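Appendix B. Worked example

We walk through a single record from start to finish. Start with the input: the chain for Helicase C-terminal domain-containing protein, Aegilops tauschii subsp. strangulata, length 567.
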Amino acid sequence: MEYCLALDSPASGAYFAQHGEKWKHASSSVNNRRGMKNLVMSSWGDESMLSENYVNPHYSSDCYQSYSERTNLNLKRLNEDVIDFDLLEDLICYIDENCPSGAVLVFLPGVAEIEMLIDRLSASVRFKGASSDWILPLHSMLSPTDQRKVFQSPPENIRKVILATDIAETSITIDDVVYVVDTGKHKENRYNPQKKMSSIVEDWISRANAKQRRGRAGRVRPGLCFCLYTHHRFEKLMRPFQVPEMLRMPLTELCLQIKSLHLGDIKSFLLKAVEPPKEEAISSAIDLLFKVGAFEGHEELSPLGYHLAKLPVDVLIGKMMLYGAIFGCLSPVLSVAAFLSYKSPFISPKDEQNVEKAKAALLNENLDGSTSIIDNKQSDHLLMVIAYNKWSRILQEHGARSAHQFCRSFYLNSTVMYMIRDMRLQYGSLLADIGLVDLPKDNLNQMNGNRKSNLESWFANISLPFNLYAGYTSVIKSVISAGLYPNVAATLEGVDPGALGGRKPSDVLFGKDRPRWYDGRREVHIHPSSVNHSLKSVQYPFLVFLEKVETSKVFLRDTSVISPYSL
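Next comes the structure step. The output line below is what the pipeline stores for this chain.
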């Protein structure tokens, strides 16, 4: 395969040298522009065009003496921190044109990269027409129907190309994959204790990950793996294994368990690990546990901390569950806790406007037992409750087929909804073990058939003491706020003046722009997946959220606009 890396390609060192700091800030976005071939050929072979700033710092001529001059020049020009989509596109077309039949599995770091490569391949001559229908994405946000398509066989003379995140490393085996293309990149959450938030970082995979990806090729017959990184990087620069979770995730739950098991001083215990976390990360976790109320005195468990240690969830979600049982709104809080612990039920179709319309339609419905829908409008958490309640009611009254049709109509993942139901039952049973709620007298430990359905009906029964206020949105939001505190953001813009000043609804102030939110340290932004993302007017100047994630900006996920009284 003949390939020349263009000097103006985003994957070239020259591109980085020219754009400098601008490239650094835009590196997380995907560039769909292809390098110009005339620029390649005009300077190809002329090393005077390569200043020191253009040369790949990981390039060593001694490592590649057996390779052609063209390959060495490509490697010299390459910026290894950027995926070369020109090369990726050409390689897939080369495989389709020259290699025997068999599906191609391409590993990419994220959904944005998958969608961009789909657009590029669909626009190419090689994959136009019916072939473009078999360029398939594979990631966690797809519907079960779309995920199942990757296991189907394409028509004769059409090659299936699967563009996947690392979900295809271990979770899924596709029998007809013969060719694997590995970009060597993935995205993972990294917690920054200084900023007290997570960042989604694109990074190199480990050697163990690379071997796992290579093993996806040729499950039923001999296969080939094309790696878009050098042998030198694989042997010398990649980690043997992935960064330990202790070094990249918050340590709050771990610290809680250390105290629950009476293992002594938290910092001393964790610093004995083979790869110990930074002291700063340990201190940040301990500080949060004090703020939540789980610790008191000299890092000792409080009564709240004692109960939180018995719940296998994030401490903020656990606190929310405990308060939900105490303040009589258990059923909606169980739904919120399950969704926040697992993932959003909404799938990611090509037309995102349809999902937004579906969310708006759900928010126009009353919460079970409530007479008002006004408080539902600006809350991702209440959206989760309404979606689950409606799905559960349809499932019980009309059966699984109708429930599945409801999910299709509102862009919900049916598999996720069933998982949420099971998690609700698990969480409710754990609260019963603690002694905060009662279980039906005829309940047994088995969770199958009618018993599971009966237990679900029990936790959803709004006449029971732990659900007396399950239809009061103000109570639910207050419990959510108490659980997620101190994750609060505030704004001074676009606030409904009637909310705090007693004015009529006609006095609502509609701003031209979205309100700017601040978390006490910096400006933050509501994530595009939130129902509050496009709001220009808000009921109240505060919102609560589960997590802060830094990508191109600092985003807040899963938000609810809340009253000052809730705080």
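Two observations about the output. The chain has five domains: 13-77, 85-243, 246-308, 315-474, 486-562. The longest strand covers residues 542-550.
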